[in-house]
């Protein structure tokens, strides 16, 4: 059953790559997908998490994909990358340089965590710094500084999914061309609440 599923997924990716004009032959794409599976035992591309044409782009450059996976293994040696990337494969669309910066930022943001990789395994979307900052800011606001947001998330990582299931909004976070982060509600210092000031100082290192 699993082998047939992989064949079906591979065929769909190859066809999507052809339609999208990905400059690789069907055999090259098939070899690229096999290389991903060799690096991540048990891995199968998830077409619900990423379009087939985007998987084709990833498979068309197997050496780059391999470099990204090795980099992620270096940053997160205990993380089950096969499961994490099946849930959040957009990481593989980043350049190696972007991915390295992102992983460094995530590790810095979670440096107080008891087990950062366990949290990331439970909520793979937090492998993106932008998403992680948004969640940390939002949880801090919910608890009005009475609880450390990282402690809250480690104790109840399903909190993020429950909020999404009920369409509870998270604070928006933006990044400019220089890599500077900003959240609209934090931009007016004269109007900051205590929790906004706390976030500025804790996560943005601002006065």
Q: Main beta sheet: strand number and arrangement?
A: 2 strands, antiparallel
Number of helices: 11
The best one-word shape is: elongated
Residue stretches low in confidence (pLDDT < 50, at least 5 long) are: 186-191
Helix content: 55-70%
N-to-C terminal Cα separation, in Å? 58 Å
Subunit arrangement of the protein: single chain
Q: Estimate the mean pLDDT confidence.
A: 87
| SSE sequence, one letter per element | HHHHHHHHHHEEH
Structural domain tally: 2
| Major sheet: arrangement of strands | 1-2
Structural class assignment: mainly alpha
Q: What is the gyration radius calculated from CA atoms? A: 19 Å
How many strands in all? Answer: 2
Q: Provide the β-strand percentage band.
A: under 5%
Brief summary:
The chain is mainly alpha-helical.
Key words describing this protein structure:
11 helices, single chain, elongated, 207 residues, 2 domains, two-stranded antiparallel ribbon, mainly alpha, 2 strands
Topology overview:
Blueprint: H1 2-20, H2 26-39, H3 52-59, H4 62-75, H5 81-87, H6 96-109, H7 116-122, H8 129-142, H9 149-155, H10 158-165, E1 174-175, E2 181-182, H11 194-203
Antiparallel strand pairs: 1-2
